[in-house]
Every structure is written in C-alpha cells, then in structure tokens.
Please model this.
Amino acid sequence: MSHVLSACTVCRARERRQWREGSLVPHDQRRDRQPYLTDAQAASLMTDVLDKYEALAGMLPTRVVVHKTSTYQPEEEKGFRSAAEARVPACDLVWMRSTAFRLIRKGMQEPWRGTLCTIGDESYLFTMGYVSWWDEYPGPHIPAPLEIGSCGPTDIRERARELLALTKMNWNSSEGLGRYPITISFARKVGMLMTELSDNQTPNPSYRFYM
Model:
C-alpha cells in the first residue's frame, strides 16, 4: 500500500493562504521566482499527511511518493525525507514539468502515449499521444511530453509507469486520460479553491468538498 502526496497543492495555495493550520508561505519565500517550503514546513506537511492517513486507514503506508511540478529545493528534500523516513520504509520525491521537447515519428502516427524517451540524464514521458485502441491521437497539436525526474536515486521507468497510470485516474472527467497525473491536476483545482478561503479558515481535508 502506498500513498501519493502532491506538494503542488501547497505552492498553489498562494502566499497568504493557509496550507496547514498555523502555517503560511510568505510572499518573499521564493527561489528562482518559485515559492518553496522550508525544511520545517515540509516536515510538518508530511507528518500531517501521515497522521491523517494512519487515522483513516488504521496503519501507515509502506511507501510515500511526493509529486511536484518543479524541482525540489534542498530544504524541501530534507524536510520531506526526514519526516517520511522516520515512519515509512520508502519515500520517492518525483517532479515533472512541461517542456519544449518534441519527437516526430516516421509515418502518419504521432508518438505513442506512454513513450519514455531518455537523453543522457533527462527523461521525457509522453502522457499524451497516439492511442492504439482509439486509433487516433486525441489532441490538437504535436504531442508534448513531460520532463520527469527524481530527487534522489530511483527507477525512473517504474516512476514513469506510475505517472502514466495516474493520468487515467480522474473519475470526474469523461476524457479517459489527462496530460498530468490526478495528483497534480486535482491539486491544482484544490489550490484554486484554497485561494478563496479567508486567512482564519482551515481547509477541509475531505475529497468530496472539492469535487
């Protein structure tokens, strides 16, 4: 049993909104124009998630995966890992982002969905592309892959398989698949709603409040 946490929710809660009761991300807490978490904030967030998981499931997960749409800052890695590894056997910190990389196949078909292209240390996953059982590419332009990576050593092929599976997990959509995994696409929607909360409100953790 594993649990996937999306840190994207936190960053998209914006600087003035609460990502956890009593904790804020200040406006000037940025690096390379991106908001980030301190090691204490990351550790607190991970602890909060594990506490809630244990309360609901009656046990801790055997593995935690954090998905993020930007690379991890050293403080974030330290905080997430310290809190997770104290209670969970395995922790993967995976990131993904849009890219200008394109791949053209010979013939009339676009690159197949699920294609993983590795160039040196860089890996590109086509979460959108030609779908054989539909016999078409359900998109308007040349498929654009996601660049994926990990903070720390991991099996990138296995992480790519997990990401691809999670792009088909949005049960609130009739599209059947998405460009981003549900961990990111749902987190973005939650983040948008959290920006509307007043400063003294605590976000409700129940999924049904964000459907």
